[in-house]
C-alpha cells in the first residue's frame, strides 16, 4: 500500500468502510473538491485522510459510530449554521461529527470549507509579507 497515492489510499478507505460511513466520507470528499478543485489530499498519522490548501483545511476520520471532520483552524471560522458539534472546547480546532442517517447542510459545509481555505491562504500571504519586510 506504500506505493499508492494519498488519493488512492483515501478511495481504498472509503471502499473498505463499505457502509454509510464510506458513502458519507465519499460525499463530503466530493463537496470539498466542489468548493476547491485545488485541494490536495494527503494521508497522515497512520491512516487519516487530510484535505489541504495552504495548510490543513480538515481531516476526515472514520470511527465505528461517526464520521468526524476536524477543521484545523475551526475555532477561527464563523459557523452561523452551527455545524460544529464536537471539539468545541479547544482554542484552535473544531469538528463536525456525523452519525448514521444524519444529513449535512451542504451549503453551510461548503461555506466552512471555503472559509478555511481563505483563512489558510491569508495566513500564508501574511507570512510572505512579513518575511519580505523583515529582510529590508
Descriptive notes:
The protein is of the alpha+beta class and 136 residues long. It has a single domain (6-134), classed as Aspartate Aminotransferase, domain 1, CATH 3.90.1150.200. Helices cover 42% and strands 20% of the residues. A five-stranded antiparallel sheet has the order 1-2-3-4-5. A hairpin with a 3-residue loop joins strand 2 (48-52) and strand 3. The radius of gyration is 16 Å and the shape is globular. The termini are far apart. The model has no long low-confidence stretch (mean pLDDT 92).
**Parts with pLDDT < 50 across at least 5 consecutive residues:** none
Number of helices: 3
Major sheet description: 5 strands, antiparallel
What name is given to the CATH topology? Aspartate Aminotransferase, domain 1
SSE order, one letter for each helix or strand: HHEEEEEH
Please give the share of residues in helix.
Answer: 40-55%
Based on the structure, what is the oligomeric state of the protein chains? single chain
Going across the biggest sheet, name each strand in turn.
1-2-3-4-5
The overall number of domains is: 1
End-to-end separation in angstroms reads: 48 Å
What is the CATH first-level class name?
Alpha Beta
**Share of β-strand residues:** 15-25%
Mean pLDDT: 92
CA radius of gyration: 16 Å
Shape: globular
Q: Report the CATH architecture.
A: Alpha-Beta Complex
Amino acid at each position: 500500500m506504500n506505493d499508492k497515492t494519498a488519493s488512492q489510499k483515501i478511495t481504498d478507505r472509503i471502499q473498505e468502510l463499505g457502509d454509510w460511513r464510506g458513502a458519507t466520507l465519499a460525499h463530503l470528499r466530493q463537496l470539498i473538491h466542489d468548493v476547491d478543485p485545488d485541494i490536495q489530499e494527503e494521508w497522515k498519522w497512520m491512516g487519516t485522510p487530510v484535505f489541504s490548501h495552504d495548510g490543513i483545511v480538515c481531516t476526515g476520520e472514520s470511527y465505528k459510530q461517526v464520521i468526524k471532520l476536524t477543521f484545523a483552524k475551526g475555532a477561527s471560522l464563523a459557523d452561523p449554521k452551527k455545524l460544529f458539534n464536537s471539539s468545541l472546547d479547544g482554542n484552535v480546532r473544531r469538528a463536525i461529527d456525523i452519525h448514521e442517517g444524519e444529513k449535512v447542510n451542504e451549503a453551510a459545509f461548503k461555506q466552512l470549507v471555503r472559509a478555511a481555505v481563505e483563512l489558510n491562504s491569508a495566513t500564508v500571504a501574511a507570512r510572505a509579507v512579513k518575511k519580505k519586510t523583515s529582510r529590508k
